């Protein structure tokens, strides 16, 4: 049987160029190599699954590459690159602080740091999840970081910058990794789907990307999960039922009912949503986002803030022309109040119904 490799591993970028959505970071790192302005310590921070470990590895590999491309990318062919890709590099060391966080682990590492590299100019130490180091380990490490040997470069990575003591922060060049934009995640997923001969509707990718909340790793795991569930032909419907996402369509429909001041219709639609197993809070926060999306679609200047594409974008544009600003602002206020009161409410269903009724009456006052 063919070995299944999860997409997040199979599609780990191995050049700067293939890293998605972190262009300012990758270009700064490249420039540092190009201008031989390497610092002794780097700290990569940011949410999980956005490319910190990946970039640490690419950076380390590129620093040691013996045959850099003109574009400052690792060649992936020289002895150093091959050794690294085969996990047998003597110059690049990785320590996962999540599982090696004792002071002895750090002492082992700092002992190693003193030894100059056999080949190449630098020994590079990647310490992943560095916030997991024990206090004693941090202190032991600090000494090395204060006076690192000339050949040593440290790349620290963490999701929890606030847990890193200031004395360490002040010795590192810090890079803050961003959550990856929905559009960037979608197009990367599209590329993965094509390479895996999976056909998938673009709206389906959009939903996956939204659900991943900026983390590429999560997006790829969700993608795998849906492929194993639905096979090589993925539709929007598959994805929303698999991920328990409320169809956009409900929101477009309920706004139409609001505009028609159809209180009964909107209450029935809310009921239908509850019947599908969604809770009221899910609905009301989704409704707020929907109003926000309609609002930004009103103006060509702000429509770029809309993180969906294709057909759905067109639907937003159409609905936006039918909603005036007063209605949208009023509706947003009502939905937002409902959201804030939801947790404390004793009768949650009634609370949402009341909000629904109020929104459905907004345009009535004018007529
Ligand atoms: N910016 C990105 N571009 C492309 N793929 C990414 C990116 N960030 C994460 N990934 C995917 O997610 C996986 C995990 O990324 P990783 O670098 O370990 O994340 P982090 O260290 O930030 O938690 C990678 O193997 C890759 O498949
Ligand atoms: Mg990581
Ligand atoms: Zn190389």
UniProtKB/TrEMBL annotation:
<dbReference type="Pfam" id="PF13177">
    <property type="entry name" value="DNA_pol3_delta2"/>
</dbReference>
<keyword id="KW-0547">Nucleotide-binding</keyword>
<keyword id="KW-0239">DNA-directed DNA polymerase</keyword>
<comment type="function">
    <text>DNA polymerase III is a complex, multichain enzyme responsible for most of the replicative synthesis in bacteria. This DNA polymerase also exhibits 3' to 5' exonuclease activity.</text>
</comment>
<dbReference type="InterPro" id="IPR001270">
    <property type="entry name" value="ClpA/B"/>
</dbReference>
<protein>
    <recommendedName>
        <fullName>DNA polymerase III subunit gamma/tau</fullName>
        <ecNumber>2.7.7.7</ecNumber>
    </recommendedName>
</protein>
<dbReference type="GO" id="GO:0046872">
    <property type="term" value="F:metal ion binding"/>
</dbReference>
<dbReference type="InterPro" id="IPR008921">
    <property type="entry name" value="DNA_pol3_clamp-load_cplx_C"/>
</dbReference>
<dbReference type="InterPro" id="IPR027417">
    <property type="entry name" value="P-loop_NTPase"/>
</dbReference>
<comment type="similarity">
    <text>Belongs to the DnaX/STICHEL family.</text>
</comment>
<dbReference type="InterPro" id="IPR003593">
    <property type="entry name" value="AAA+_ATPase"/>
</dbReference>
<keyword id="KW-0235">DNA replication</keyword>
<dbReference type="InterPro" id="IPR012763">
    <property type="entry name" value="DNA_pol_III_sug/sutau_N"/>
</dbReference>
<keyword id="KW-0808">Transferase</keyword>
<keyword id="KW-0862">Zinc</keyword>
<dbReference type="GO" id="GO:0006261">
    <property type="term" value="P:DNA-templated DNA replication"/>
</dbReference>
<dbReference type="GO" id="GO:0005524">
    <property type="term" value="F:ATP binding"/>
</dbReference>
<dbReference type="InterPro" id="IPR050238">
    <property type="entry name" value="DNA_Rep/Repair_Clamp_Loader"/>
</dbReference>
<dbReference type="GO" id="GO:0003887">
    <property type="term" value="F:DNA-directed DNA polymerase activity"/>
</dbReference>
<keyword id="KW-0067">ATP-binding</keyword>
<dbReference type="GO" id="GO:0003677">
    <property type="term" value="F:DNA binding"/>
</dbReference>
<dbReference type="InterPro" id="IPR045085">
    <property type="entry name" value="HLD_clamp_pol_III_gamma_tau"/>
</dbReference>
<keyword id="KW-0479">Metal-binding</keyword>
<dbReference type="GO" id="GO:0009360">
    <property type="term" value="C:DNA polymerase III complex"/>
</dbReference>
<feature type="domain" description="AAA+ ATPase">
    <location>
        <begin position="38"/>
        <end position="181"/>
    </location>
</feature>
<keyword id="KW-0548">Nucleotidyltransferase</keyword>
<comment type="subunit">
    <text>DNA polymerase III contains a core (composed of alpha, epsilon and theta chains) that associates with a tau subunit. This core dimerizes to form the POLIII' complex. PolIII' associates with the gamma complex (composed of gamma, delta, delta', psi and chi chains) and with the beta chain to form the complete DNA polymerase III complex.</text>
</comment>
<dbReference type="Pfam" id="PF22608">
    <property type="entry name" value="DNAX_ATPase_lid"/>
</dbReference>
